[in-house]
Amino acid sequence: MTDPARTPTSPARFGLTEARSNEHLRDAGWWEGRGPTAGAEPVLVALSRSPDPDLALRGVDRLRDALGDRWPELDGALRDGAVLRGRLLAVLGSSTALADFLVANPDRWADLADPEPVDPAAFTPALVGAVEGLTGAEAVRALRSAYRALLCRVAAEDLAHVVEPEQPYVTYDDVAGLLSDLAEAALRAALDVAGRQVARADECTLAVIAMGKCGARELNYVSDVDVVFVGEGDLAVATRLASTLMQVAGQACFEVDAALRPEGKAGALVRTLDGHASYYRRWARTWEFQALLKARPVAGDAELGRRYLEVVRPMVWTAAEREDFVADVQAMRRRVEDHVPAGLTDRELKLGRGGLRDVEFAVQLLQLVHGRGDEELRITSTTQALAVLGRGGYVGRADAADFGRAYRFLRTLEHRLQLQRLLRTHLFPADDDTNGLRWLARAAGLQAEGGLSEGQVLLAEFRKRANQVRRLHEKLFYRPLLQAVANVPTEALRLTTSQAAERLAALGYAAPDGGLKHIEALTRGVSRRARIQTALLPVLLDLFAASPDPDGGLLAYRRVSEALAETPWYLRLLRDEGTVVDRLAALLGTSKLVPDLLVRAPEVLRLLADTDALVGVDPMTIGNPLRATVSRYRDLDRAVTAARSLRRQELLRVACADLLGLVPLRTVCVSLSEVWVAVLQAALDAVVRSAGTPVASIAVIGMGRLGGRELGYGSDADVVFVCEPVAGASDAEAARYASTVVERVRRMLSAPSQDPPLQVDADLRPEGRQGPLVRTLESYRAYYAQWSELWEAQALLRARFIAGDAGLGARFVEMVEPIRYPGRGLDLAAVREIRRIKARVEAERLPRGADPSTHTKLGRGGLADVEWTVQLLQLQHAHEVPGLRTPSTVRGLRAATEAGLVSPDDAAALREAWTTATRARNAVVLVRGKAADQLPTAGRDLAAVAGAMGHEDPGGFLDAYRRTTRRARAVVERVFYGS
């Protein structure tokens, strides 16, 4: 079968796909037999360029029916006139609503044939003339018809070049201006009608002040028109006059919204000039001054409107000096974000990410700050303000031009979407809406190219522009600050240091002057490095502002940048990888540990661009590369240095992944534990290699949290050392040799360093600090058989081999099995003793002044509470419950639950408390850069810890922590203390 689209004589070659296309074309006289009629080819070609040729042809058919005997006149005009062809077919293929209007008013097609551009000066005479002498419903009908006719004319000129490329292209700015002028004329006509309908209208004076898009002369095809009313004389009459104006205009043309007036909808509809002034001086919030940027008198008494601007405009340019400016700006940003519907963030042209509000908000904020000293910025239009910002040096010229184009593109798409049915919409078609994308692309004048369809071209362009706009806030919001602190004044750039400081303060920086010094240091000079920093800092400043500690983040960034100044790839990575910038800012604005490590392990920065690499592989294998690398060094110092370096990298990698929320707690704890194990193993191997012929084998037994693979960032490594003589050596020789090796390992690992300390704690050995550092296996056996105490059996619950001779380690673990898992459990006396020891620890070891409700280790419901409870159950029941024979607290708790020793609810409370306390303890180390068991209870440290824990509200985090640990403490009282 022949494809109709490939048949030269088929209507399909003109983009027509509907079954009735032939019939419609024949009825119009444009088709006969197998081809176009004489003179119809230009019409069909123009039809094919319409955004929707089938829709346009249906509109033609409806219009032909409406015209009846007058159709030949329109037919001839279409055949002969490119102006009419372009305008009419573009409108019919773009807007069903305007097609309905033309069908209802078929003689209006002649308005579109006028070759002269539409004259906005004629709008007011046309609309006021249409309602002359009319009131009520008759006036509304007349105004609606006249308004819709002019709207159709504007749309026709806007769209004509899509269908007839030779027709003049009308820019977005011109179209928005025409729509605003048309709305202004409609308000004047509505006021004219209201003046006839309201009694005693001559006893008052009313000025209509346009706000928002109408005030800025950047109105959409379908928008509410925001206004404020100012009155003199009888305000009751003025209020009726304003209310009637809103009613007439709303019924005929568009909704008139007066919600931007003082006190919003709760306030008086009309106020005197003094009333407005009093309100703005005493009560207005920052967003109201932002709204006043767009204020423009458009109807009513022009003199009163002029005086209104003279009163309110000076107040606009002092808004940035208000004490609550920072809080108001932050609140405005949150409100904008909150208005984005769920799931539509990437498609919402107005409020979504990279949407129109991002541009408008950034430009308006720049105007509020810098318009005080630069009167050129005191303009209403977003695009014009962008141009002035570029010319004045507040932003780069290229940036201003790029984002101006992006804004115009997005507004054009918005116009096209609204024209379709004359409904207020801002929703870009979904990715799988092929027809919607194709129609919108053609309506916007985009064509298929490079093997991509029109819809694909549109989608690519939309994403490109949205991404540009997404960066608009960072670029425009901070560029003036950078130019000021870098001391690069120009004739058009007159920013003072105080203005730059105000900008930092507006972002939430506590020490703007210090921030200025950091920025100046980073951007000083004309080097390539300074130029890249100048491009990066606008983004980073905004990101730091969203972090718990903006000042600390900026300081840390300066430290890292100065430390890595000679690293060739550092700034390139930040410039080219947006993900790295986002993640680095979050890390530096939250943690003191990360920048301390980063200056000595910069290679981890590269991992921020690759989530999989940052998360890493199986944490159980994390130490393999470290051991393999260190084993290649014969020199002891170099081996230990390599071990420290690799440990630093892994510690930083885990910390970054943890803070960014990419890994669960278990992965963090296992990773930190296995890194410690690998360092110990590598250091032990290196020392043994350097010590000559060994006379003993040595095994390292992990204890405590290391044994349970539950280490945190600030944990020491609890271990015991065991040795065994080689053939021909005595126990005494073996012990001396092993002690020498172990002491050397401990000394090298604990040597002063800028890294987090590597403390090897052997205090859990027999006799504690009074006992020998290393014993032979037989010495351990003899000691545990005769002298071991209950606390030592409890400590052995978490013992596991971690380094050295695996066979010896296995024999040690086998030897201690009956000690830590006593054959008959514990008698009542032993249980009482454990409880007594625990109570003594609570009373004596909690630091003086510590808050037991927020001490993560020894506080109520903290780590010690949960761990001692699980360990008591292990000592009592592990002889009969094999699952309890584990060094892991979490696994032990799970086994106790499965055995019915703890109820599921109690187990859940204990597990949640242990997990929460472990995460909080880790977060404190990450935030402060040093180990601490006490949670901060105020300030930025608390905010940072709460943020690291996933809480936006610091106070809410503390409440949740206390609530969780209270529940756990209640379980401990029942299960551990038996109360």
TrEMBL record:
Its cofactor is Mg(2+). Residues 87-309, 582-814 form the Glutamate-ammonia ligase adenylyltransferase repeated domain. It catalyses: [glutamine synthetase]-O(4)-(5'-adenylyl)-L-tyrosine + phosphate = [glutamine synthetase]-L-tyrosine + ADP; [glutamine synthetase]-L-tyrosine + ATP = [glutamine synthetase]-O(4)-(5'-adenylyl)-L-tyrosine + diphosphate. It is an enzyme of class 2 (transferase). It comes from the Bacteria. Residues 489-979 are annotated as: Adenylyl transferase. Residues 1-481 are annotated as: Adenylyl removase. Keywords: ATP-binding, Magnesium, Multifunctional enzyme, Nucleotide-binding, Nucleotidyltransferase, Transferase. The keyword Transferase applies. Its EC number is 2.7.7.89, 2.7.7.42. One of its GO terms (cellular component) is cytosol. Residues 331-477, 837-975 form the PII-uridylyltransferase/Glutamine-synthetase adenylyltransferase domain. One of its GO terms (biological process) is regulation of glutamine family amino acid metabolic process. Gene3D superfamilies: Beta Polymerase, domain 2, Nucleotidyltransferases domain 2. One of its GO terms (molecular function) is ATP binding. HAMAP family: GlnE. Involved in the regulation of glutamine synthetase GlnA, a key enzyme in the process to assimilate ammonia. When cellular nitrogen levels are high, the C-terminal adenylyl transferase (AT) inactivates GlnA by covalent transfer of an adenylyl group from ATP to specific tyrosine residue of GlnA, thus reducing its activity. Conversely, when nitrogen levels are low, the N-terminal adenylyl removase (AR) activates GlnA by removing the adenylyl group by phosphorolysis, increasing its activity. PANTHER family: BIFUNCTIONAL GLUTAMINE SYNTHETASE ADENYLYLTRANSFERASE_ADENYLYL-REMOVING ENZYME (PTHR30621:SF0), GLUTAMINE SYNTHETASE ADENYLYLTRANSFERASE (PTHR30621). Belongs to the GlnE family. This is Bifunctional glutamine synthetase adenylyltransferase/adenylyl-removing enzyme. The lineage of its organism: Bacteria, Bacillati, Actinomycetota, Actinomycetes, Pseudonocardiales. The gene is glnE.
